[in-house]
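pinned: reference chain
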Amino acid sequence: MRVLHTFTLALALLSIAPSRAQDISDLYQITGGRFQSHVEYKSVKIPKGSELLLADLKGPAKITYFYISDVADLALKVYWDDETNPSIQIPLNAFFGYDKDYVSAFFQVNHRCYMCYLPMPFAKRARFVLVNDTGKDYTASMAWGIDYDCDQKYAGEKSRLHANWLRSNPVQDGAAPLARLISASQCGGKNIVNTRHTILDVTGRGQYIGNTLHVYTKNPNWWGEGVTFFTVDGQIMVHSPGTEDEYGSCWCFGSNFAYPYCGHLVNDNGNNLMYRWYAANPVRFQHSLKVEIQDLKDFGPGTDDFTTTAFWYQEEPHQPFTLAPYPARTAPSNASLLPGRK
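pinned: its structure tokens
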């Protein structure tokens, strides 16, 4: 019986293993691929306003693992194939989600080792670039590495990983009305308010696989009544009746947690950090996708500071997007108390 319990536990652990470049059930398969790895460890100097090329890889291939030892205040840009506009353009620390240890299905941090296991196919070329837009010179000892599977089958793969960073400081009323499209009953009886933060707004063909959300609030009561909306190819729908439902909890957030597909990592004096990965249920779209979340309290619209990093796969070309400058990314929060609240 003890052997059976041990075997059952081992299977359970395999089934929830957070970081898998290949599904556990497929690990025995021998393919036509050839393993390659790009690793560097050295003293890095990036003058203000300059860039550092981390890697320039040749395809066709699929990246299976990317790690770095320091996320600092730098920005990350990733270019696929011959594109002139990066498909990934976000703060480096935002790419990995958090600067303390945690484990999820896509990302993991262990004692300053920041790891990503998202598959990243490309046909011709992949360029990883660090950008120093902080206004100060950057010097540090840094290690980084990228594992990738070279295989001719990726020459015809059109999907490319994208990531974008957006901040609403604070979230403001000004979005288009939803009341005529969504009923209060669909939102759990909550008010249809227009104070919404846009997580993602893209055109093309692909699938949305998740985001990290940082909320800073000065309101002492429960802040997370906001509904998440998906507008898929022009059709708007409610995905969850409250923020905690979207990020893996119900009836507010309890203690902090970090699980393969969802987590609430920080709950400290108004600071809240969470993530949600749509690994088994990606949000697929053929023409366009818009993802929004309300800033809504149990007593009315909020005035909070929302920051998100969205991850999605999409066929190229994509709409060019820009990263907010460093001063705006690191500016003090403009979150405020609602009138009449203390």
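why pinned: Residues 1-21 have pLDDT under 50 and may be disordered. The chain is about 10% helix and 45% strand.
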